[in-house]
């Protein structure tokens, strides 16, 4: 077994028509080191915005399979509450029942799924206080008797604020306002005479079953770019070179003899458009690379759980899966 | 607080062995995982390849319409494939726990610095 040091080779190169050195060198018998030293693995938080709902963080030194697992778990395996069953008593609006029911399912709810149990299959829609949240939507559109105001109708637009939570059992003591995340999501439009009367039942589910149960608006990662200048570029060419990259990535630096030189300021924000390759004379001036083990994650929550709590939940799902399989292996080997 | 994993409606084991390998000894096995995909498969494969006693490790999803994953392990003489699989799960658990701790610490430090 040969041991190489791949410290210089942990970058992939973006060429004009191809991307080089993308493979991971993971085949049996090859190790840079059996388990990377723990201090080489880092997690750094870059930005937390929007009251914890938006998160940008870096995972450095990790294997792409683990980073991808975190991303996939965030999208499809972390549970959320969403409306599943809709009992429509009255719907004289233009929108068909099934379309309306579909829209209700997509409304993000603030309820914390960790406080609920999974609903068993085959039980009735009403459910128990441990596994179901009940809402009611009753709207009727009328003419506006007040002729002077601009609106000719009353309640012609149905928003999520019209949803009323019907607490079951002891839910009113345990939950604070588990309704929709935003009050101004438009559900339907009515005209005088139209009426909507429905009961909605929300349960716990995972993104795997239906995308409405995904707790993230999206979660994605990209590799940290790197730009190396091979030869100095001055003045006119430097201005063109700086324009090839996302603003803020390259800048002009004055030299001693009064000329302007192009310099890399911060490659992190580059969107890797490879625009340089459109200029014949500037193509060879830079080498575009990405660090294969530096993942820049962006996690944006729909509003039920903060992104800073979603990532540990995703890893918890992975830990539970491992636990499950270890137990199965142990019980099977006893047989 | 209930489990994060949804209940398994079909019941039974989620892990089984593909028939036909048991005659060739303990060192090669194909494991069949129900309701698993690349999320677990790729991670397990990575952990298995870090084990010097594993000669071959690979996973495949035979058909995208079926929620099934096959994991093939071949090990050196005298080291059962099942031990390699168990070790991979234990290693993955340790690795993921460390990642979680690092993340939670990083968030705490970031929030302390903000205030």
Short description:
The complex is a heterodimer of chains A (335) and B (115). With 335 residues, chain A is of the alpha+beta class.
Description:
The complex is a heterodimer of chains A (335) and B (115). In chain A, a hairpin with a 4-residue loop joins strand 3 and strand 4 (54-60). The longest helix of chain A has 28 residues, at 307-334. Residues 1-7 of chain A have low confidence and may be disordered. Helices cover 19% and strands 32% of the residues of chain A. With 335 residues, chain A is an alpha+beta fold. With 115 residues, chain B is α+β, with helices and mostly antiparallel strands. In chain B, strands 1-2-4-3 form a 4-stranded antiparallel beta sheet, covered by helices on one side. Chains A and B meet through strand 3, helix 1 and helix 5 of A and helix 1, strand 3 and helix 2 of B.
Quote the distance from N terminus to C terminus of chain A. Answer: 37 Å
Share of helical residues of chain A: 10-25%
Number of DSSP-assigned strands of chain A: 16
Average pLDDT over all residues of chain A: 90
- How many strand units of chain B? 4
Shape of chain B: globular
Describe the secondary-structure layout:
The complex is a heterodimer of chains A (335) and B (115).
Chain A: E1 11-14, E2 19-20, E3 42-49, E4 54-60, H1 64-76, E5 80-91, H2 97-105, E6 133-140, E7 142-143, E8 153-154, E9 157-159, E10 163-166, H3 171-174, E11 186-189, E12 195-205, E13 216-229, H4 235-244, E14 250-254, E15 260-264, E16 286-301, H5 307-334
Helix pairs in contact in A: 1-5
Chain B: E1 15-17, E2 28-34, H1 38-49, E3 54-60, E4 68-75, H2 81-114
Helix pairs in contact in B: 1-2
């Amino acid at each position: 077994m040969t041991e190489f040091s791949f410290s210089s080779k942990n970058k992939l190169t973006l060429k004009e028509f191809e991307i080089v050195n993308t493979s991971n060198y993971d085949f049996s018998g090859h190790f840079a080191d059996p388990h990377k030293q723990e201090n080489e693995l880092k997690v750094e938080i870059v930005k937390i915005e929007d009251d914890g709902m938006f998160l940008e963080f870096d995972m450095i030194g990790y294997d792409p399979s683990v980073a991808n697992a975190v991303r996939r778990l965030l999208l499809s395996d972390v549970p959320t509450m969403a409306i599943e069953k809709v009992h429509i008593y009255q719907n004289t609006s233009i929108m068909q029942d099934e379309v309306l029911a579909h829209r209700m399912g997509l409304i993000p709810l603030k309820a914390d799924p960790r406080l609920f149990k999974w609903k068993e299959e085959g039980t009735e829609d009403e459910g128990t206080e441990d596994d179901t949240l009940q809402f009611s939507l009753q709207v009727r559109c009328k003419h506006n008797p007040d002729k002077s105001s601009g609106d000719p109708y009353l309640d012609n637009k149905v928003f999520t604020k019209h949803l009323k939570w019907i607490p079951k059992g002891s839910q009113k003591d345990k939950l604070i306002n588990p309704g929709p995340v935003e009050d101004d999501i438009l559900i339907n439009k009515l005209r005088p005479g139209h009426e909507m009367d429905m009961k909605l039942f929300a349960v716990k589910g995972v993104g795997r079953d239906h995308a409405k149960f995904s707790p993230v608006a999206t979660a994605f990662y990209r590799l940290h770019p790197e730009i190396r200048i091979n030869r100095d570029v001055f003045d006119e060419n430097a201005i063109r070179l700086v324009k090839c990259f996302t603003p803020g990535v390259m800048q002009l630096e004055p030299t001693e003899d009064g000329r302007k030189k192009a310099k890399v300021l911060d490659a992190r924000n580059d969107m890797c458009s490879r625009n340089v390759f459109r200029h014949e004379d500037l193509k060879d001036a830079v080498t575009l690379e990405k660090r294969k083990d530096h993942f820049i994650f962006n996690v944006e929550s729909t509003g039920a759980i903060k992104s800073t709590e979603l990532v540990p939940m995703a890893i918890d799902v992975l830990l539970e899966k491992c636990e499950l399989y270890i137990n199965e292996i142990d019980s099977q080997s006893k047989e | 607080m209930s489990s994060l994993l949804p209940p398994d409606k079909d019941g039974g084991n989620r892990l089984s062995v593909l028939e036909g390998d048991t005659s060739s000894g303990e060192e090669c096995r194909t494991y069949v995982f129900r309701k698993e995909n690349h999320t677990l498969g790729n991670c397990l494969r990575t952990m298995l390849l870090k084990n010097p006693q594993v000669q071959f490790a690979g996973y495949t999803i035979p058909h995208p319409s079926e929620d099934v994953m096959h994991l093939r392990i071949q090990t050196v003489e005298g080291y059962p494939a099942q031990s390699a699989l168990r070790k991979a799960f234990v290693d993955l658990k340790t690795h993921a726990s460390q990642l979680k701790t690092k993340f939670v610490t990083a968030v705490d430090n970031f929030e302390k610095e903000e205030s």
